[in-house]
Amino acid sequence: MSHIERVKEVRAIVEPHYNCGQSILVPFCKELGMTEEQAYALGVHLGKGMRHGGTCGALSGALLVLGAMGFSEEEAAAFIQQFQKRRGDTACGVLISGFSDPDSQDRKDFCNDLVLETAAALDQLTAQK
Question: What InterPro entries does UniProt report for this protein, alphabetically (predicted)?
Fold first, then answer.
């Protein structure tokens, strides 16, 4: 199963919930040298911008993968810059600020698209390593 297929699969799971960070880490667990359970546990507090609207969990998860795979600070900075260029910001609180109901389907769809987009960019970059 490809990384992207696994991302789609975990995003569809209702219980247990996979936050945006876990939705990146679990499909890339082999690159992290972890089991899926370990990757899930590692990402438990990345959701909702580390629980306070900070850096998007999908971006945080991707940066953990890049670090584990030995990507340089410059490569990580370029990944962040590309994310910001695509989405306009890196902060979860800013990214979802247009949604009055954080539990709305529109917000969930937005985050699902963002996670898939981030996973695709990560997949493309890591395939070069």
Answer: CGCAxxGCC_motif
